[in-house]
Design a protein that fits this description.
395 residues, alpha/beta, Aspartate Aminotransferase, domain 1, 13 helices, globular, PyrdxlP-dep_Trfase_small, PyrdxlP-dep_Trfase, methionine biosynthesis, cysteine-S-conjugate beta-lyase activity
Amino acid sequence: MSEGKKTQFVTAGRNKKWTNGVVNPPVQRASTVVFNTVAEKKHATVNRTNKTLFYGRRGTTTHFALQEAMTELEGGAGCALFPCGAAAITNTILSFVSAGDHILMVDTCYEPTRDFCEIMLKKLGVETTYYDPLVGEGIRDLIQPNTKVLFTESPGSITMEVQDVPALAAIAHEHDIIVMLDNTWAAGVNFDPFAHGVDISIQAATKYIVGHSDVMLGTAVASEKYWDQLREQSYLMGQCVSPDDAYLALRGIRTLGVRLQQHGKSSLELAQWLAERPEVDHVRHPGLESCPGHEFFKRDFTGGNGLFSIVLKQSDPKATTALLDTVEHFSMGYSWGGFESLILANEPSSFNALRTLSNPNFEGTLLRIHVGLEDLDDLKADLEKGFAAYNAALA
């Protein structure tokens, strides 16, 4: 990260009109905004889309500060807030598609994204075609006259494939297709979405933006071309964010740089250590050559984080259970991005329900690991105990 980016983590969203003389923007809770004159009411009505107090669902100064901060960090023209990452994805897509449209969805997308396509979009008459994350120029063959959105997620969920987003975006833009990116892994700062051709960058801010596993939050930052439509059409779906949660996200941004740096350093070292384990077939960490699409990570990303996967040489649920039940610092949980380490197991057969085209070409159990902020020696010792239990169960 450049020195300028580090400074931005401290200053973003701290405009004096939001802080009012204190360090942090205060929590402003409001549903009704009252006006003393007709002129004040008219002014608020005219400017309600531009960080002006109008009604609680449009936001308070706490929300405006977070929106401004996210726009500063990722670029773009504006940021819409949502009550979780899944809401950010679904409401953003719904803001741009109509019955009869077609979207291209990366096959390694977040599972709730796929469920949304298979259930809700299908019910609304929107067709989804899944594509291999490493399709490259082959994406041209999948574009239809009614294709409206190209959705990317890089690295991919669970199996960590890194996409050539600039190449895909360039092809999509030849056909006036909107390029959306689930940019959660990079926390919006280790991959510059708008410099690489993305039109709308979406995050589960629940993860690294908040960073403490205690808030559900989603963000979508749009380019100038698409900001007005995203802002107004997502607003019509009625979802909004608590000012208290917005405040905690702002606080998380202040330490985002140092947290990501530590997560990234520890995860890379642990990934290299795991690659030498006799139980491990290969490691899927974007920073290692063994990860599909590593060359795009090396070219386009400015840093890593704590999330990666390893594939074991065998698939033995009993032995995997022994490992998971033995480790102490690695808890099992359906999230990541907090200060704590996590681990989840995926058997090869589970991908049959999650993938259409890009079923992973391996036979062993996949362990998705999030490396937290604990001492790395303690994490290694914890996994050593887990592997001892794993090997005992195999014997």
